[in-house]
Amino acid sequence: MSIKLENVNYIYEDGTINRFRALKDINLEVNDGEFVGLIGHTGSGKSTLIQHFNGLVKPTEGVVSYNGEDIFGEKYNRKNLRLEVGLVFQYPEHQLFEAEVLQDVAFGPRNQGLSEKEALIKAKEALALVGIGENYYNKSPFELSGGEKRKVAIAGILAMEPKILILDEPTAGLDPKGRDNILELLKRIHGERKITVILVSHSMEDIAKYVDRMIVMNKGSIMYDDSPKKIFRYHKELEEIGLAAPQITYLMQRLKESGYDVDENATTIEEALKGLNINA
Amino acid sequence: MMSNIIRTKNLIHDYPKCDEDGNVIGSYRALDDVNIEIEQGSFVAVLGHNGSGKSTFAKHLNAILYPTEGCVWVNGYDTSAEEDVWNVRQSAGMVFQNPDNQIIGTVVEEDVAFGPENMGVKTKEIWDRVNYALNAVRMNAYREHSPNKLSGGQKQRVAIAGVVAMRPKCIILDEPTAMLDPVGRKEVISTIKHLNKTEGITVILITHYMDEVIDADRVYVMNNAKVEMQGTPREIFSNVEKLKEIGLDVPQVTELAYELRKRGISMRDGILTIDEFVEEYGRLVK
Amino acid sequence: MLKDITIGQYYRENSIIHRLDPRVKLFGTMVFLVSLFVADNIFGYIIATLALLGVIKLSRVPFKFIVRGLKAIVILLLISVSFNLFTTPGTIIWKFGILKLTYEGIYNAFFMAVRLIYLIIGSSLMTLTTTPNDLTDGLEKALGFLNKIKIPVHEIAMMMSIALRFIPILMEETDKIMKAQRARGADFESGGVLRRAKSMVPILVPLLISAFRRANDLATAMDARCYRGGEGRTKMKPLRYKKGDGIAYLVYVIYLGLIVGANYL
Fold first, then answer.
1. How much is the ipTM here?
2. Residue C101 CB: number of other CB atoms within 10 A?
């Protein structure tokens, strides 16, 4: 079970003056059960990239395959693919449309061809998973708080029981509490449902804390694809493309440069506590 | 009192609560006895999670909302006096969260001119003000562009220029960076600081990003409709426990120092920067 | 799909026509449209054709750009031509059932087609050479007299320019919502008319909500920037007549005179 991109190129509005090469020779494989962070500044191509994963966008050149099959092959059922590869867009709460929370979440399962009863069961399971209780089922999505709306929207994708879950900046616009809530939720789902999670984020601190593998995009190409710890060593290069390593990385490197015996590769607070080699 | 550009006294704001038919069945208190004084020329930050009342507070400073009880004075004008509404709005400009939903013009320079045009400023002076404002936010090179083609940070700077062109004494920014990427956030914050330092405009920054408030002169932390903490950034960040309880972040170095202290290491309070941490660490391991 | 619409598009150039005051161009378009209905023989149409070609040349807008706007009216054109061809009474040339082709019909159909084509070319020439902003400014100023009969001209112009700013944003948003719903398994392509109409609900509801949210935000932002209607408002770029504009008006008078004169030939 994997998504594989081979020599993928994508060109916007080919043949016009607006022609823009959004993806350049992308080669990438995401394996089962990975928790991947995808990072890059606005316009780096990461949004275009994730739309290739579920066939919403067709590459101008190259092959995208899922479980070994070319998803743009003649007989390939892309509608099914979209149910297996769930994509949560930015500000997903803006796509809620039903009058009641439960009905909205059941939209996906219904499109999967499930019976009304089954669709509602799936919707209830998904809501339980994101921590939205029964008392919310019949509420209008528009009465909820920002964080709750977002959870409902994510449940809308989870109800389809995707094997791969892709989220485009799921914490944008939320406050710290809302952000931690969503990230903890993703970590739990990743563990419980054993699904692949691809997280697009701007926050290096979040990436460092949650993901095993990190992909850095710049100008349509993959710049780094490695563990966060290894990538943060290139913090100078990251800065050049408008990104930065977590503050902890800078601190540990400064301490090392000042001649102290610390672990300069620590990237999270937990690691730093160990790596500082200081005792009461 | 003259040096205070903004002053609130026992400010209370209630939103009406309605049932499904639209009948008022009660009220919800969004601001509860808020007393704040903001000095002319200062850089003030208001922190709080969503729903803490900080946005409601911002809307009071621009006479978009009026106090249920208590008073708000902006540049000496009482915001609840109807005849002074335009004076209040000219004295205290406002920048909102979503950059797309506050740009009116289809060309950058024309959008910046919108405020002065409404105020009835003469054509020649409008041009002077637009030039000045676009230079102040460093967007002069884009003056003839369409706002739709700009990045989020650039749009937000245009929105700031639109306010600057009204020559306000004070600018209130309601989560101006919440929808931006890190590059855009940096652009906007450095623009705001520049306006405060070199143009002497009072800045009130409402945010939940902690790293944006480190350079503020004064920080107010709102929680449950009340001002829960106030002081210099150092004073505020000395109280990591309370900030966490409220649901706010602290910079990573501050948190690390706090964790070390919890483990019995005698790190000092209120470390805000890497430099401070390195210095303190050096003192400890020696 | 939506990108193909060229009516209302602006073509960036710096020609004499581009530099004219928008009011002059609005009035000129009116004069031209009227002249098409005043002219009643071939000489009048020759004058109109020459005038149109002259303006196109002066505007420096490529001819293919202007013709592209005609695509939108091909069907309308065909309908009105065939209607005129077969229903005008007169000397019959050819007959099939109730369809009668007459000399008068050919004559009428020809002039109808020319009128329609010139009408579209004339008005797209105006939008191609005038920025949307100038156009709304021009309309506001030219129709200012309607204020006296309580028509809120300024407000209408303001609405037009806000619409111009938000149309691209909402188009982008529609695209995004469609993709997001497709990611939830929505299908907009298959099924009958009714099913397809129903499948639009998950797009239209979020779009409408978003439009309202934007409108609400925008209203607050306009309030905060001291907007209080057109009264007492000044302009960064006020419309002022220049020398060329006066000459243009003079040309209009001569043109109309020629058209009317041609009718007596």
1. 0.90
2. 17
Mutate to test the interface with C, among A53, A79, A88, A95 (most CBs of C within 10 A): A95
Cβ–Cβ of C186/A56 closer than 8 Å? no
> Which of B110, B121, B130 lies nearest to residue C234, judging by beta carbons?
B121
Total structural domains within chain C? 2
For chain B, the chains sharing at least 3 beta-carbon pairs closer than 8 angstroms are A, C
Output the pTM of the full model. Answer: 0.88
**Residue C61 is part of which domain span?**
2-130+241-262
Q: Which domain holds residue A275?
A: 246-280
Domain count, chain A: 2
Chain C nearest C-alpha distance from B247 (Å): 27
Residues A257 and A227 in one domain: no
CB A111 within 8 A of CB C199: no
Cβ A177 vs Cβ A126: under 8 Å: no
Q: What is the pLDDT along chain C (265 residues), one digit of tens a residue?
A: 344 445 557 788 888 899 999 999 999 999 999 999 888 888 899 999 999 999 999 999 888 878 877 877 788 888 888 888 887 777 777 777 777 788 888 888 888 888 889 988 898 888 889 888 888 889 888 888 888 888 888 888 898 888 888 888 999 899 999 999 999 988 887 778 888 888 889 999 999 999 999 999 999 999 999 998 888 899 998 888 888 899 999 999 999 999 999 888 7
The dihedral over CA atoms of B165, B166, B170, B171, expressed in degrees to the nearest 10, equals: -60
Name the strand (E) or helix (H) holding C262.
helix C243-262
Q: Does B49 touch chain A (CB under 8 A)?
A: yes
- Does the B4-107+163-243 domain belong in CATH 3.40.50.300? yes
CA distances from C177 to A46, C173, C204, C210 (A): 18, 6, 9, 11
Q: Do A2 and A56 fall into the same domain?
A: yes
